[in-house]
Recover the amino acids of this structure.
């Protein structure tokens, strides 16, 4: 059976200065040029570092992503960054709807959908994040919650375009906890079914990433789960050796 290429994306969150980027990307580019990855690799640094990263990875198989964008293209939104601005700075992807934004900034599925649509409008590939809280999982509602988020956070505009969904259980992010492989498979299958219900079979090539405490030592097992099309990596993407370990597991 043909295996599609996985996507390993690093989410630096609000971490990293120019010197950190130079060190990590210097090490990554050397390693990936010596031995090209068998997966797609993306790094999503803070927006202050996007153009620096775009310059540093020229000629190297590392894609550049933003961590969020506004839905509007421009306007009086102090502090805001639009998808067009990320694209202009050198990004090719953008994460939208990360649970930290849903929780800290009250972002709704409706807003996340508008942001994903803005990404498509600007020519960026959105990585649309979904995931249940610990209370929702304990109440036996994980699949239902994630299904609803997929149905409501994916705009029709993604059909036929490069995009991904990332399943990130909120309780697994930055905690060292991960669901069992069976739980990951259950949710990923439900995400795929919801994507097809919402967007049709044309959405079938889009990868469903797993995110939440992915490390070099659990990456191989997680990436082998059916319907896991890659990983969204937080903490471990800040260290070149750890991120490389995950890339090599894909
Ligand atoms: P983590 O974060 O890998 O540090 O758990 C994942 C994420 O928030 O995307």
């Amino acid at each position: 059976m043909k295996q599609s290429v996985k996507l390993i994306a690093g989410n630096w969150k609000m971490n990293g200065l120019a010197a950190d980027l130079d060190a990590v990307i210097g090490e990554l580019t050397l390693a990936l040029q010596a031995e090209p990855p068998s997966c797609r690799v993306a790094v999503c640094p803070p927006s202050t570092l996007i153009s620096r990263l775009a310059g540093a990875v020229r000629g190297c198989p590392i894609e550049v992503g933003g961590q969020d964008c506004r839905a509007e293209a421009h306007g009086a939104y102090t502090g805001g960054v639009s998808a067009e601005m990320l694209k202009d700075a050198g990004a090719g992807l953008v994460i939208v709807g990360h649970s930290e934004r849903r929780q800290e900034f009250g972002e709704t599925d409706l807003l996340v959908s508008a942001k994903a649509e803005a990404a498509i409008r600007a020519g960026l590939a959105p990585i649309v994040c979904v995931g249940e809280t610990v209370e929702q999982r304990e109440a036996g509602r994980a699949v239902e919650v994630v299904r609803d988020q997929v149905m409501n956070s994916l705009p029709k505009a993604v059909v036929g375009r490069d995009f991904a969904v990332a399943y990130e259980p909120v309780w697994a992010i930055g905690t060292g906890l991960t669901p069992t492989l069976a739980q990951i498979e259950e949710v990923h299958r439900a995400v795929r079914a919801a994507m097809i219900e919402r967007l049709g079979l044309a959405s079938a090539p889009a990868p469903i990433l797993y995110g939440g405490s992915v490390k070099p030592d659990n990456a191989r097992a997680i990436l082998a789960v059916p319907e896991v099309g890659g990983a969204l990596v937080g903490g471990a993407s800040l260290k070149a050796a750890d991120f490389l370990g995950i890339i090599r597991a894909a």
Notes: The CA atoms of residues 15 and 46 lie 7 Å apart.
